[in-house]
Amino acid sequence: MRHLQAILILPTTATVIIPTTILWFTGGPDFGWSRGWSLGWSYAFPVSLAPLLAGCALICVGLTLLGKTIHLFATIGKGTLAPWDPTQKLVVQGPYRHVRNPMISGVWCILLGESVLLGSVPVFIFALLFVTINHVYFITSEEPGLMRRFGEEYLLYRNAVPRWVPRLTPWEKEKSE
Fold first, then answer.
1. For the chain, is the Cβ count within 10 Å smaller at the N or the C terminus?
2. Residue 6 and residue 70: Cα distance in Å, rounded?
3. Is 88 exposed, middle or buried (0-12, 13-18, 19+ CB in 10 A)?
4. What is the pTM of this model?
């Protein structure tokens, strides 16, 4: 239940509730009912397929990252994605071997996918705001907290794995020590 609560409060709010509210207040896309189905873009077929496919691909990548990271937090970290119920063990497996914040990267991919799919500049602006706020939060709160909780283990990880831009090769803890 605590995992479901964290998922409903955090990524669901960021990827569903806020974008839906933005679309509601900005008029959102026409969804093509009056001009042929184009999901917010007025391009003619087949050009209209490009934003459709790109948006869907970004959303799929984001959902995959989100699902994998939530699973890792629950099974390996023994905690949730929520700051009020954090992991008990440092998670450095799966996508965390490439980038320190794959969960936020996943949410950002979903938001970018939604903005592309729907042709929504306001949702794109929210995506930029989302990643900026998280960047500041990670530097000022999350990373110092991880240092206090996990000490040298986190320092080794932080020095080897980038915060946002993924490593091409997965980090291996044993080789770094």
1. N
2. 10
3. exposed
4. 0.87
User: Before 102, cis peptide (omega within 30)?
Assistant: no
> How far is it, in rounded angstroms, from Cα 55 to Cα 114?
6
Q: Using CA atoms, how far apart are residues 147 and 134, in angstroms rounded to an integer?
A: 17
**Was domain 2-176 assigned CATH 1.10.3470?**
no
Nearest Cα to Cα of residue 171 among 90, 80, 74: 90
What pLDDT digit, counting tens, does each position of 87-141 carry? 899 999 999 999 999 999 999 999 999 999 988 899 999 999 999 999 999 999 9
Domain ranges in the chain are: 2-176
